[in-house]
Amino acid sequence: MLQAFLPIAAARQPGPGPVDQVIRLVETVNSFLNNIVWGWPALILLAFVGVFMTCRTKFFQISHFGHWVKETIGAIFSEKHVRSHTGDKSISQFQSLCTALAATVGTGNIVGVAGAIIVGGPGAVFWMWLIAFFGMMTNYSENVLGIFYRRKNSAGEWSGGAMYYLRDGLGAKKGCKTVGAVLAVLFSVFCFLASFGIGNMTQINSISGNMDAVFGIPTWVTGAVVVVLTGLVVLGGLKRIASVTEKIVPFMVILYMVGSIVIFCTNLSMVGPVFAAIFKGAFALKAAGGGAVGYGVKLAIEQGMKRGVFSNEAGLGSSVMVHSSSNVKEPVRQGMWGIFEVFADTIVVCTLTAFTVLSSGLVDLDTGVTQTAYQGVALTKANLVSTVFSMHFGFAGAAFVAISVMLFAFSTCLGWSHYGSKACEFLFGEKITKVYQVIFVLATFGGAVMGENLAWDIADTLNGMMMLPNLVGVLALSPVVVAITRNYVDRRLRGRDVEPMLSSFADIQKEAAAAVEAGDRP
Predict the structure, then answer these.
(1) CA angle, 257 then 262 then 267, to 5°
(2) Is residue 97 part of a domain?
């Protein structure tokens, strides 16, 4: 009898309510947009801009390799002014690098790389390297434009970023005033909204999840602690953020590198097989999971490029907002820090993560397939690296990765708070930025206690949508980047007596040129 009534009962069940229907609609629209902003057309555009700027600057990252290494990582140890704190509202070159790395060196360097290998196989690592190689010059170009078109606000702080070179650079071209202004506003809106997701709640959720899983600390406790710590730093403004990140970033990067290098040395015999698998998987033979050859290569390219961009953010126009706050006078000098930023983030940190995973035995180097479980525990992108460290160091390994994720994610949150502040300032004015910072700090608690939801996916889409107006600006203003680069090479490397190109604005140009003429190194 009960079975006879089941169809009737099922028929009487209410359908999806209005709220559910709206959520499904938003999911559908967001999925469609996400496939566009992180789909093949966008990835091809991203790669094209990197290749284009590399060619236009005559492979600057290679042809002047020694020079940019000397002027960045070399200068940290040899030139005091690179590290020295400034008396005005600007920050030092080293602080700008650390704040930018704070935002880029995040969970993508651990979870993102693991996810790329699981889906795309070892070959994804090669494409991650390739997009980073060309991304160096995309990031370089963004920083050059950021310094060239930056201006000071009423508080005496430098304000720069994609929104400014879109409005004042692209907008200054004939017939492009409206286009430049609209793209600048769109970029700022996307950045403002994404800062709460990609730059805040997702990062803090990674911290609380790891603290709960490894140490048994309730998520609400982690959330409360993070609110206090974030508030103490973020509400102090950029100078305090930079002061904290210049201490956290070198420590966390070196700490993670040491742990990874220990595993590297332990598995030294795997160097050859691992690199063979990377190049083998990048171009042909078997796909991850044993699929068709073409599909396997497609997955490797897609995952490698996408995760590479997630990791170093070259092309998104995000880190340029903090690079523009540097005390540097020469646009090219800050551009070279952008090259180093991508190099350190992807070529160094991501490569160490990749080798750690690929040399563990959990990935079949012949087929590219990752084991589905280890000792009865399902392997996912979230726990793969932690599992590898546990194989070598036991519980200490899992704790080490949890602490690394905590530092990476917290520093990312600090860096993105500045990006969101600058987007807010551009859209609503300087007075509203303090309100934004308070809301940003409070949002960290929500990120700690909430599970996965649609808001994260939307933030991911918004993060990608920042890329489109930014790349339009970089392409349109590529002649400016080339001219500034040529001007710098002529003056600094060839000793020619030519007037420096330091700013688009006459008053800033005059002041900066006088400082450079007087021998002011920054």
Answers:
(1) 120
(2) no
Is residue 14 in a domain?
no
Q: Which residues pair with 151 in a beta bridge?
A: 159
pTM: 0.87
* Residue 275 amino acid letter: F
Within-domain flag for 338: yes
pLDDT tens digits, one per residue of 357-377: 999 888 888 888 888 888 888
- The domain that holds 128 is classified in CATH as 1.20.1740
CA-wise closest residue to 335 among 43, 49, 64, 102: 64
Taking the C-alpha atoms of residue 420 and residue 474, their distance in angstroms, rounded to an integer, is 21
Angle between helices 384-393 and 238-266 in degrees, nearest 10: 60
Instruction: Give the DSSP letter of residue 86.
Output: P
Total structural domains in the chain? Answer: 1
pLDDT at 200: 81
Q: In the 8-state DSSP scheme, what is residue 268? A: G
Cβ-in-10-Å burial (0-12, 13-18, 19+) of 399 comes to middle
Angle value at C-alpha 477, between 471 and 478, nearest 5 degrees: 85
Query: Residue 375 is which amino acid?
Result: Q
pLDDT at position 5? 38
Planar angle of CA 126, 128, 134, nearest 5 degrees: 105
Continuous H helices in 57-122: 60-63, 65-71, 73-78, 80-83, 93-104, 111-120
Domain range enclosing 338: 37-83+103-516
Q: CB of 155 within 8 A of CB of 422?
A: no
Task: Give 489's DSSP letter.
Answer: I
**Cβ count near 173 (within 10 Å):** 12
Token pair of 360, please?
A: 């563990």
Sign of the dihedral through C-alpha 159, 165, 171, 174: positive
Tell which residue, 407, 348, 414, 324, has the closest CA to residue 136: 348
Label residue 191 exposed, middle or buried (CB < 10 Å: 0-12, 13-18, 19+). buried
Helix (H, G, I), strand (E, B) or coil at 368: coil
Any domain includes 27: no
**Segments of the chain with pLDDT less than 50:** 1-13, 286-293
Determine the Cα–Cα distance for residues 377 and 54; give it in Å rounded to an integer: 45
CA–CA separation, 364 vs 433, rounded Å? Answer: 50
Closest CA to 305 of 58, 104, 45, 52: 45
DSSP state for residue 214 in the 8-state scheme: H
326: β partners: 91
Q: Tell me the one-letter amino acid at 407.
A: L
CA angle 199, 197, 259 (to 5 degrees): 45
